[in-house]
Amino acid sequence: MRWLESHYQIAVATVLSLSLALPHMALGQSDVPLPAPDLPAPESGPAAPEPPSAALTPAEPEDRTAEARLREREDLDLLFAELAQTEGETWARAETDILRIWSRSGSAAMDLLYKRGEAALDGGELEAAIGHLTALTDHAPDFAAGWYLRGVALYLNGDMGPAISDMIQALALEPRHFPALTQLGTMSEELGDDAKALKAYRASLKIHPHQEDAADAVQRLENKTKGTDA
User: Do 211 and 204 form a contact (C-beta atoms < 8 A)?
Assistant: First the structure.
């Protein structure tokens, strides 16, 4: 059954490490002075100034993920406007850029888990894929692409209920996640809930009107409703 496999062939550009440790934090140090020897005070000359404490100036924060995500959100708004255009061919480039942005978690370790889950899924190793992607959703619960990809793996593994739950979670994090909407339509249709399926397909096409599978599904369900199932 279809799951928009081409959407997840975009390779993660850089994988730095598999360390799941928390980011290193620069901490100021305060030295404990040793007792001064019992010496007579100097007869003349000003006292030497105390060195400034390094702890007074906090280290420059290294994590700019929030700022980067804000820039990506601005980029996504423009890309989605381009994706929704019904004419021209620039929508394909917009689709590629959207999926590329979505595939970045902001963590090299989480990106590696995502890549391993994706590779296992592409290779038909469903249990391995679910394992990698469960670790990913556990450690990066705000990463919508992780929930979507695990939902796909669960669906292909026959776990329909958990798969639907993961799609809903992905959409809660990213309401414009058109692959999750289309997949939700597919699963609803398989469960015999044509009304929910049609609603999901239409919502997906409103965001990305160039999805042939979703458009075909809408036509099929509309014909079925009219009693002329194609």
Answer: yes
Burial environment of residue 177 by CB neighbours within 10 A (0 to 12, 13 to 18, 19 or more) = buried
pLDDT in tens, 17-52: 333 333 333 333 333 343 443 434 444 444 444 443
CA distance 55 to 82: 49
Question: Which CATH code, of 1.25.40.10, 1.10.287.610, 3.40.50.2300, 1.20.1250.20, is assigned to 106-174?
Answer: 1.25.40.10
Tens of pLDDT along 73-87? 678 999 999 999 988
CA distance linking residue 10 with residue 115, whole number of Å = 10
Q: Where are the domains of the chain?
A: 66-102, 106-174, 176-230
Enter the pTM of the model: 0.68
- Give the DSSP per-residue string, 68-129: HHHHHHHHHHHHHHHHT-SSSSHHHHHHHHHHHHHT--S-HHHHHHHHHHHHHHHTT-HHHH
Token pair in block for residue 139: 């450690």
- Return the CA Rg of the chain: 27
